[in-house]
Structure formats: structure tokens, C-alpha cells
Amino acid sequence: MTEAPTGLRAAVSAKVADRLFRRAAAGLDVRIEYPDGTLVGANKSQKILPRMIIRNPDAFARRVGTSGLIGFGESYMAGDWTSPDLTAVLTVFASRISELIPRPLQRLRALYVAKHPARERNTEQNTRSNISHHYDLSNEMFETFLDETLTYSCALFPSTPTETERMHEVAVLKAPVPQIAPKWENLADAQRSKIDRLLDEIGVGVGTRLLDVGTGWGELCIRAAQRGAVVRSVTLSSEQMSLARRRVAEAGHSDSVQIDLLDYRKLDGEYDAIVSVEMIEAVGHQYLSAYFRVLDRLLAPGGKVALQAITMPHDRMLQTRDTYTWVHKYIFPGGFLPSTELIESTTAQHTTLRVRERLCMGEHYAETLRLWRERFIANSSRARELGFDETFRRMWHFYLCYSEAGFRSGYIDVQQLVLERTGTMR
Questions:
Q1: CB 333 within 8 Å of CB 133
Q2: What is the pLDDT of residue 174?
Q3: 410 CB contacts (<8 Å, ≥6 apart)?
Q4: End-to-end alpha carbon distance in the chain
Q5: Is 1 part of any domain?
């Protein structure tokens, strides 16, 4: 990250950005405090509102004026602004995101938002580096905030018996999609519950030939092998592969679990069941049809596919699909969140697979992220010892809060989907 932009163009952009930001924030349920005592927000007298404290107004405006939302995140990384409750502030902004930019300027969006650089498209040549940018940071760094299962995806917390019964009643898409009311308990148990539900939905048991697309740190492989399944798993993270193999060996399942450093497009074989947990976000919209064609090709007759996918509403996905964001630049190069509609239309047009069940879990991800955030803050000194400087730690804190805010506001969701083969293609 560079210093705040300078020069005449940056100064002019800063003035415009400052005016637009204050105007947009004036109607938000947030208290924005400037060094000169100026307060901006819907109700300046209510101290219970989330506080955004601007420490360097000029640098903040220059970054936002030059780089938009990317600059907004960068200004937090640089310390231009802070908050005692960052998630609450970002949740307010996320819940009103469509109203923050005046409509006339929204029509000109394509002229001023950054586009994805070609080097980050998820081709076979690029995808490995995109994945490494995030997942090969350091296994020890991820251990500062993950639980003992080292599971880096949404957990599934306990629900009431009535809600559990409703959850299993959703057999077709026309049925209501349940939202489980969480009871926040042990994170590791909730992660195991998430994995077990996915394996249950696709019938993983003794002798099942299971393909796991996106290994993570191996917990799903271990739990599938404990059921008697024969597992093949692929990843593009050398750090994850190394630790996952070690964990599988320590659990005594090396004979039944194979983990390869391999692009999903190069997979071969036939599998009774396929599972992929929050890997679809790294595929990219240009390659979504190729991804599902691979799953269709590899699935044995009568088999099922279970996906856990972070999703966006379809209209929002279409509006932002080509936008280069702070998350792309600093966290997930090449990342893309599909909509349910896009998944359904892509599988219908290019495969014989159809979505037959889905479970929405957005509230569960908000809680998962809260627990990660609290652990990361508590273990900040450990991250520092590992060589991650203050800018990185502020970046990672912003990322966790930013993501949590997205789920709390409903801007994004996460779903477990079960796909079956119909035998026909459009």
C-alpha cells in the first residue's frame, strides 16, 4: 500500500469525495467524528450509534477520491480512520450500499470503477498464484484465529428440533428455503456439524468414492475417512496441502485419503459423491460453466454433489461482476461470488446437474466471523511474532469485519446446495 495520493487531480477528487461522503453519511445510523469536532450522521446526539473516527481527513478523502471503495479500505489500513466497533460501522454502510452514491453517478459507474486486471483471471496459468496470495500466507497465521479443526468456512451452529425438521423437508427448490436460528456454542463442534451435514446429504459412508474439491487443511477428508470413504482431494495451496497431509497421517487415514496439488480442470476418475466447500468463489464467472462441466463429468451415475457457496443477490451480482474491489486487491485476487440464479442457469445450460436442495446460513457466517475476529484480535501479538506488521493486521481485521458486515446486513449469503443428475441437458 502506498502513501495517500498527491497532486492537483488527487486534491480535486478529494474535495468531491469529501462532499459526497458527508452527504451520504448524513442519513446513516452512524456517528462520524472529525478532528475539528464536526459530527456527521443521522442523529448526532445519540452516542450509542457506531462511531467512525476520522484521524486524517485529508488523506482519507484523497484515498477515497482516487480509488473509491478500495481507497476506503486502504485508508483504514493506513490509520486514516478507526472505530471501536468496526463491524457495526461497516454493517451500516453495507445495509445502505445502494443508496450511498447518487443515482446520476451510479449510471456512470463503468467510467470510474476499476476493472479486474487480466493477470488475475482464473486461467490455469493464473489460478495457482491467486490462491497462493491468500492461502499460502502462513499456516501459523491462520492458526491465530481458526479453531482446532482448522476449518476456514462457515460453521453450522445448533438449531431447534423444529427448525431441524424443516431443514430436511426442503427437497425441491420450490419449497421454502429455511433460515436456521443459531444458538452460538462451540465453534469446533459447529464446524464438524457443517461438514457432517454435507457428507450426510450426499450419502458418504463405507466404500464411498469421494472427491473433495478444495482441501483446506484436511478436516473434511478426515471426517469422510472416519466414515469409511475413500477420498481424493485437490488444492492449489502448497501450504495447505503439506499440513493437510500431515493431519490426515496423524489421524491414521493416509491409506484412504489422497491429496494432490492440482487444478480442478485436470481432474480425472469417477466418484460416487463430490463435495466442494467455499471453493466456487475462486472459479470466476468466466469459468463457472467449465467448473460445473468437470463436476458433471466426474460424477458416477446416481451420485450427488454438495456445494457450500457464498452467494450474492442476482441483480447485485450483475452490477458488480466486473468491479475490482478492495477484497480482490488485498485478499482474494480473482474472487467472484455467484448468485443462486447463475448457478441454476449455468448447470441447466451446460450440465445434467440440477440443484435439488439449498440451505441458507448467512447468520451462521456472521457468527463464525465474529468468533474469528475476536480470536485474531486476542492473538495479535502472535501474528506480529510471525512477521505480520501493523498494516497487515489492520488489513486482516478490516477483512474479517467487512465480511461479517456483509452477512449481518444481508448483502451476501452462504448456502449449502445439493445437486443431482437429471439425465438431460438443455
A1: yes
A2: 43
A3: 95, 362
A4: 47
A5: no
pLDDT at 103: 56
DSSP helix/strand/coil, 213: strand
In whole angstroms, what is the distance from residue 352 CA to residue 85 CA? Answer: 47
For residue 30, the one-letter residue type is V
Residue whose entry in the numeric block shows the C-alpha cell 466426474: 298
The domain boundary, picked from 112, 139, 159, lies at 112
pLDDT at 293: 98
Instruction: Output the CA torsion sign for 37, 42, 47, 52.
Output: negative
Q: Which residue stretches of the chain have pLDDT < 50? A: 105, 108-109, 111, 160-178, 180-181
Residues 168 and 154: their CA atoms lie apart, in Å, by 19
SS3 17: helix
Q: Maximum CA pair distance of the chain?
A: 69
Q: Where are the alpha helices (DSSP H) in 154-218?
A: 161-169, 187-201
CA distance 418 to 354: 8
The domain boundary residue, chosen from 92, 112, 132: 112
Residue 257 lies in a domain: yes
Q: Is residue 210 part of a domain?
A: yes
For residue 121, give the 3-state DSSP assignment: coil
339-348 pLDDT, tens digit per residue, is: 999 999 999 9
Region of 360 on the Ramachandran plot (φ > 0 left; ψ -120 to 50 alpha; else beta): beta
H helix intervals, 209-287: 219-226, 238-250
> What is the reported pLDDT for 74?
97
Residue 378 belongs to domain spanning:
119-421
- CA torsion 209-215-219-221 (nearest 10°) is 10
Q: How high is the pLDDT of residue 420?
A: 97
- Sign for the CA dihedral angle at 399, 52, 155, 347 comes to negative
Q: What is the pLDDT of residues 1-50, one digit of tens each?
A: 678 888 888 899 999 999 999 998 998 999 999 999 999 987 656 568 99
Q: Are residues 128 and 103 in the same domain?
A: no
Q: What angle do CA 306, 141, 91 make, to 5 degrees?
A: 65
Residue with cell 493506513: 78
pLDDT for 278 equals 98
> Position of cell 487531480?
9
Which of 377, 146, 369, 374 lies closest to 243, judged by CA?
146
